[in-house]
Structure formats: C-alpha cells, structure tokens
Write the structure tokens for this entry.
Amino acid sequence: MSYSAPIDRYTGKINKVEIGTGDARVQVGGETTQPFYLFEGEMPNRPRLAMEVCDEAPGDWAKALEDVLGDVWDDPVKWAAKCKDEFGADLICLRLLSIDPNGADKGPDEALEVVRKVADSVEIPLIIYGCGNAAKDGEVLKKVAEQMEGRAMVLGPAVEENYKTISAAAMGFGHNVAGETPIDVNMAKQLNILMTNLGMPAQRILIDPSTGALGYGLEYTYSVIERDRLTALQQNDAMMQMPIICDMGREAWKAKEAKVGTDEHPEYGDPVKRGIMWEAIGVTSLLVAGADIVVVRHPETVKLMRSTMEGLGVK
Amino acid sequence: MALTGLDIFKKLPQTNCGDCGVPTCLAFAMKLASGGASLDLCPHVSQEAKDALSEASAPPMREVTIGQGENALKIGGEQVLFRHEKTFFKPCGFALVIDDSMEAAEVDSRLESLKKLRFERVGYELKTDLAALKCASGDKSSFAGLVEKVKGACDLPLVLMSDEPDVMSAALDVCGTGKPLIASATSDNSNAMTELARKHKCPMVVRGGSLEELSGLTEKISKAGVKDLVLDSGSRDLSKTLENLVMMRRSALKKKFRPLGYPTITFPCQETQDEMLEAIHAAVYVMKYGGIMVMNNLQPWSALPLFVLRQNIYTDPQRPMQVKEGFYEFASPGDSAPILVTTNFSLTYFIVSSEIESSKRPAHLGIVDSEGLSTLTAWAAGKFTAEKIAAFIKKSGIEDKVKHRKVVIPGYVAQIKGELEEELEGWEVMVGPREASEIPGFLKSWQ
C-alpha cells in the first residue's frame, strides 16, 4: 500500500466583493478551496481584520481595551485614525450605538455626521453596523447609504425585519450589504435569496452568520460557517457563495473570562494577555472555519492574526 | 473497509449455538456489522477468522491510550472530518515540555504549572493532560533522573522525547510500566525503538520526513507487532503541519489507508518562540485534527482559552452542553436577593449569567434540568413546565436561603405564571424580560 495525497476538488468558488473605493479599496473572497487549504486551491485575498469603532464612548469595556483605546474612544474620528495608523486595521467597523432607542436615541442626521467625518478622515473602507434595533437601523442606514453614495461601504446587519430597506438603499447608492441570520445555513441562504430577488447583486452581499464567543456558543458559529463554506464549494450553491463576516470583538470581550481581574479569579492568570487570547483564539477559529472579515477590538489581536495568516501561507 | 453482515457471516462457525446471546450466527453477524456487538462474544470463532475480521472491522482510525488509570489519555478513534457530520469523540491532549537541561527551579515551576492548569467550567474539569519530558542533554542518566523526579511529583501520563534508543531504554526502565508515549521512532532508529515499545508495551510516536516515509514506517512497525502508534508528520511550520494533518485524517477516514489510521501529535513548541503564537498554532490543531499538542509555554491565560476551545470543538453537536441543575449565586446574594429561574441549556445559562454578572446585582439563578433545551423549546416540549419548576424550587432548599417568596420566570414563558402560582403555594410569580439583555435593567429596578 503506498501513500497518495487525497486532494479534493471543488466545483464552486466564493464571490469576490469589493469594499471601499480608490487605492484603499479592499477585495475579499475569491477562495476556490477550504480556508488555508492552499495545497488544493487558492485563497487570493487573505481574510481581513476590521477594527471596531463606536460612535459613543464605551462604558464598561475591559481594562485591557481601555489601556490601548481609552485615550481616543470618546472621539470616533481619532479612534478610527489610531486603528488605521497605529494598529494596521484593514477596515473600520463603525458601530452606531448612539442611535439605539433604548440609549441616546440619536437621529439619522446625527449618525450620518459621524459616518461622514470618519469616512473623510480615514481612507480605509468602512463597515457601518447599526445598534441592533431593526427598525431604527433601517431608518438610519437608509439615510447613510443615500448621503454616502458610491463609497462602497458595507451596511448591516440586515435582518429579516429590515433587509428590504437596507438592501434597497445599498443597491441604489452603490454599497454592499451584510445579511445576518441566527446561526443557520438555510436561513442565511433564504435571506440571500430574498435580497437578490429584490435586485441586490450577489457580488455585493456578505453573510453574517451570527457569532458566538469562545465558550459562549463558538462551536455553533464554527460549524455553521464550515457548513456554509462546504455548501458553497462542494455543491456550487450560488446563494451561499458570499464571503462571510463575523462580529467577534464585542462577543469575545463580553465573556467573563476576557474581562475579570485577577482579584476575582487569580487562577485565570494575567488579565490583559487572557483577554487578548480570548479574542484571538476565537478569531482563529472563525478564520479556520471560513470567515473573510472579522471585526475585532484589540490591536494585539490584529497583529497575532496577521502573523498567523502569514504562517498559514496567506499574505 | 467495512464488512457487510453477510461477509462476516461467512467467517462465523454457522452453528447457531446461541452462546453469544443472539439466536443465530446471521443475526450475530448483522449486529457485528452495525457495531452493536463485539466478536469476543463468540467463544467458537477460529483465530484465523478473528484476525481477518478484527483487521477488517477495525475502525479507520485507531484509538490509542497513553498512561494508565483515571488520568490516562485516550486519543484517536475519530470518524469524521467535520464535527457537524457526527461529532469529534476523543478530546485532544495538551502536553507541557520539561527538559533535562532546565534549572531545577524551572523544572519545579513547570511541575507546579501542571498541577495548577486546571479549571472548572459548567461542571466539567479542564486540565493539562501530559508531561512531555525531553532529553536535551543527550545523556541517559541525566534524562532518567528527570523522569524519576517527574514520576514522583506528578500523576499525569508522560511523553518521553528522545530519538536515542539508549536514552529511551534508560527512561523506560524508570517509568515503562506506566505506559508512557515513546517519542519517537524514525527511519534511523525504528528497529531499536520498536523493540523497546514491544518490550514495555508502550504506545509510540512515529516521525517521518514526509507522509510517504511515515506510511512506510508505520506499516513496518505495525507488522513488527507495535500497533499503538501516534503520527508525527515531521513538519514544524503552521502551513505544512495543517496540510499534513488534513492529509492524514482524510487518508485514514476517506481512503481507509491503514498506515495513516492513527491519531496525531503536533509540536507548537518547536514552531515559534512567541508564547501567544504558540497558543494560536495549538488552537488551529485543536480544530484541525491534532491529537496531542506539545507546548513549551502553557500559562493560565493561554491554557484557559485553549481548553475551552477544545471543550467547544469536542462538544457533540447533537447533544447540547448542559449545565448542572441547581442554584447559582451572583454577587454574594443575601436573603432578599431576587430568584430567577431558567433552563439548563448551556448557552441560555451563559447568556443569562453574563447579563446578571454585568449588572453587578446580587441574584440567585435557578437552573432547571430541561434536557439541554432552550427556554421556548423546553416549554413546548414539556421540559420547562410549572410542575417541573415548582418541584425544583421545593427540593432545592432555596426557601431556607431567602426571606421572600418571589420567583422570576423568563418572559417567553409568561403563560405559565398562573399555573406556577398554583403549584407553589405562597409564592408570587413575576414575569421577567424576554431577552437576556434586558435583565440588568430588570434587576436594577428590583425592589
């Protein structure tokens, strides 16, 4: 019996999606194989790291984050600039927390103002994520889409209740859309079908599969991404061939293990390194499963993931 | 290749004696084919048939045990490439390196780490599995000294790392009865190492410079009678190791290629000097078919996330992780802190508990055994009913811990309020929020 390498061939490939404009634009997707399986296919674009920036200062983030972001986090423009210049973010994910009706409840005009300032100050592409209130996100992202026409941003998350508003606006004004469904292959596919039926080009859609942090449902996200990807590659299912975006930073840093100090849990060890590892190992698993963009919070995670991807042969 | 019931039947005595507990040989063969019985149950089967059948019915990836007793590590026996296809069965092991050129203080501190790197999470123990002892000095008495010391101080199974048969032999004379993992046999030393593995009945790592070379070696070694093997593809960089791990797993499972039908070992410790990257390499191998990860740095801050990743990846997708039934306390709740109840689906518990924690309010959280179902599903399936909640509260002893008689149920099961008040005489049932994210607000307004 002699060994021969069991190489797989895939019939499908992942769409290429362009985000941003000009020299700073970023392309994601295009894989013809499972993530980092360079021995049997291509991964023309390395997965991208988007750093999260909020439009209002976070109240309760871990000390490990405060140490590196605390000096800029009351100003989204400075925060975004630091992510780009000092931390080497590929993209900025601007989260519009202030529009939350249960929070500051700011209107579309105020949100637009922040988006415009951030967009004008950093050249790297933007992902604009709402507050999670479907109706309000639809209202605000519609305005943002119109007024930022042609900037090819990613707008999201579009969910069952607001995908019509968000994808129509994205479609009409030259943006991309990220559709979010609750950790389910069929629901992700269904939302993609609905959006493309409206006329949204498949090449401008990203899949947000919903992200569970390490220890808090990561295994569900991990397996649903693997299944999404196998459906796209092995079954050549055009409605599953969108690149995948995962919103990991906020989930990872919500975990007790990422933020408690040594006073409460001395056995958990150094809280800063632990927080970073909680995020970075979670991100690693998303990349290994098939994520194309991961939203993160800590600059050290960005660095570690760069080295890891280089180690995996994707620069 | 898996045999059919008929293939097996042909090799059985066909006497229908029933001694195996099944009335006919054919029925027994069918049970064997489906994995529902073991050939040992037939006292009359010929040795020849036994060999043929056990060879053919052996699982595509062998399960290998390292060490003995309750700390023994079992790896391998995996059946799928993707966990969603079935599950990953045998959680991979983590080994911490100790070498014989380290200062005594460093050795002691690593021994201490091996004891300390244990965490409890949702009622499960997460721990380091192995001590990997490496002969860096090249001197057999120095190495045997280290083995002796570690053996006395630590009850974990050992990996013995040396390519020198003399050194290995001296170490095995100290600890060979404990079934340590011999690392490693190579094309240069395989005869002598195989002899040692056979003599001491120990599992052994086989290292090849390529998968072709490795396959040739394992074939030769298994023919010589040593079958508990662990594969080291020889690569020491992330990309190539990932490729080799995928190739080995596919060869074993999809092509039933016996020479690679064994669990694997990886060496993040030899791939990078950076302690964070080392942990990330290990994380990649946890997901992609690593059986053992040998680590040079394993600190609480890297071990905890790695062990939790292992727990996540090796959770059976068909059987959601469950939290033990009982009351969980937050912020030292006194006798006036609110009582909340929810289901024992681990995600429900995590989300609810993290919201309670973030509110910094004291609370008693009652976890009712709902067979791992989430709130609405559990209610619909009759696993989270007024009757069950009432029974839980009564037997939990919470009535002795609080002065009040108020219990908060999840907003999604508001409809059971009346029924629960009937079941729990003297209690007021309050309807809490539907979404966990509203719990902090709810607790802050608690009187």
